[in-house]
């Protein structure tokens, strides 16, 4: 451990990375003996890249295993348990709550080589190993006239294992549902290294595993439901002076019977960041922009639904632009897809909140968060899946100039706003390390004990992804 810390603080590029797979690292040596050298990373220089996800730095793992079969996962879990170290599952590490960042020195199991994907068109299902890239499922299903709807914006890089770990959502999830809604069965390796196959029946243990961020078991295969894509899609953009009008329009459209496929929101600061980046002709003066898709197999109904949304936007005081044709629709959606790179130009780091609140309180919540951002002196923008009440207030910061305490304080205040308004801490990014402390505000002590009891029932030694989701209990 001492040598590890020394190596981490000595960052001279001229220094040759040392191999620690031998006597100095008995765990890596044992895993190499069991699995062979090609599946185990024991060099410090290699292991260093496995200590973070998209938001959080953790500690350097003692060993990284790249399993090529479920049996390799079982062997690794059993070896880690014999050594008494923690086990962290990792997909593409695109997570935004610290889920894949190890908090203790142990083993990281990186699923990127488990990429088998089989499509069964006749039963409209795919069977995917955890390392399959999300978009690959739809790409493989499309020739059979099918798609896999869950569409996190990261779908070109994120994996099915990570999506199940976080129960990922995306713009299409308002109408079509989140990852968990598409899982009909899964295989997982438990904390003792035993393999189980689960359907979605009594007690729905599979449902418990989904969204558990690798803290209850490691998913080695998932059966996913596929659906035919809608034949028609229509798109519109609406902009408003004030976010309250946008929220009113959303509520009115849904109350009138519209179920848009996508219903996305960007506040004025976010719209301006995108416009600075790409000059798409977005309305810079707007307080809020909505992007909406309606879809279905009957063109008349799809257009009627778009008309309902349009009328609700106009009634709420908005201005509306219909996309005429696919090219214009694609240009409008480019604005939403460009949020991440646009924000990356403003500050090198961001903390991406993921609260969900009832739609009825959205205007108040967005205003309160805006006021908190202004008072903090930090740069804050808001966007999200407004149809679900899922907001992503993003705190943009430069760690060289802005204190991480101030960022954490603002994130905590935002979490409290959500809780006070009957909301929850996470819609799709998970709790991880980022919102773990805030769980004490969201969950009463009795419920926390119940959650710890579930965790310990499945993982008595707290070996699976420790330091995530549940804060330590002093009396536990
Ligand atoms: C630019 C950008 C945009 C994003 N947009 C969205 C979005 O629209 N919607 C959304 O939901 N998320 C979004 N995310 C967050 C992230 O992409 C998702 O959480 C995604 O599901 C993580 O997948 P991953 O493969 O990167 O998982 P990782 O980050 O590697 O892991 C995520 C969690 O799953 C666990 N895990 C990984 N594999 C397994 C396994 N086989 N078994 C059990 N647990 C496992 C890990 O331990 C960790 O806790 C975005 C991220 C970025 C960077």
TrEMBL record:
Query: Domain FAD-binding PCMH-type, which positions?
Result: 57-229
Name of the protein in its database record = Glycolate oxidase
Q: Which protein family is named in the record?
A: Belongs to the FAD-binding oxidoreductase/transferase type 4 family.
What is the species listed in this Swiss-Prot or TrEMBL entry?
A: Deinococcus humi
Q: Does the keyword Oxidoreductase apply?
A: yes
Q: Where is this region: Disordered?
A: 1-25
User: Where are the compositionally biased (Polar residues) regions?
Assistant: 1-13
Report which superkingdom the organism of origin falls in.
Bacteria
Which Pfam families does this UniProt record tie to the protein? Answer: FAD-oxidase_C, FAD_binding_4
**UniProt-recorded Gene Ontology molecular function terms:** (S)-2-hydroxy-acid oxidase activity; FAD binding
What is the required cofactor set for this protein? FAD
